[in-house]
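Good morning,

Both structures are done.
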Amino acid sequence: MSVKNAAADVLAAVSVMTHAQNACARLNPMNAPMTLHQLQQRADMIDKIIRARSKLQQLRNRAAALEDALTRFKARREAKCA
């Protein structure tokens, strides 16, 4: 790693940290009550996360089923050729 690259990496890291610090400063405290709009946004986000997890699990199950089917197909094909 050259000195020029290291300096650029440090500047990039400092920039990210500054951005994160500014974003965190704008957050509401945890003990502050949420508005109705904020509660609705939170509920929508939770619903989307639950739906995404469910769809991801369905994809995993389907991928496993397809892999099993492919294995059975290859075994039958090899048995026919033998």
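Second structure follows.
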Amino acid sequence: MPVDPKASVRISAFNWVPPFAQGRVRDLRPRWALEEAGIPYAVRKLDPRTERPADYFQEQPFGQVPSYHDDTVSLFESGAIVLHIGRDCEALLPADPAARARSTAWLIAALNSVEPFLMQLATIDIFAAGEEWAKLRRPGVVEMIDKRLSRLSDALGEKPYLDGDRFTAGDLMMTTVLRMIDGKGLIDPYPNLVAYTARCQARPAFQAALAAQIADFEERETVSA
């Protein structure tokens, strides 16, 4: 669904980030979930280079993005938001209780068992490049990431998605996490993960969500020109 300024659902997002972060800010996750669910949404745009408006801390206590608001709830944290959106959307969370529980487990696994290690590498490569401690720490981080990817590859096997034949919120979250190491060649030794991430990113809902996020940045660049 297109972004609709009059929509009752609203998320927050940044109106500018450096090029390396474009297409990877975490508001992509609820955007993608909303596209899968067919729910139009509005966007509250924030400038990451300035202080957050005082009222925003009521939406997101830490001043980060995304936050989420609809007619019944106000939420923060991308995982909680995606689970909320999926509550009434079988495209994200299956109706079958066992399948729903497995999808939820994979979503949490993406955030707790995979993302922290990938974030360590991002910190080293982006924010600590050239630091002596980073040079010493990086091989160990890469080794741990490979162990996690190996386990993930084994769990996926030959299935198209983590829980079998259908895409769920667990795949949505895992894909956005794995995109953090695009271009580093770390997934290349695992052809099933390469195919898996490509399959998930080929979904029309992902493409629409990505385009919407990028459009916000392009709008900011145009205004600043």
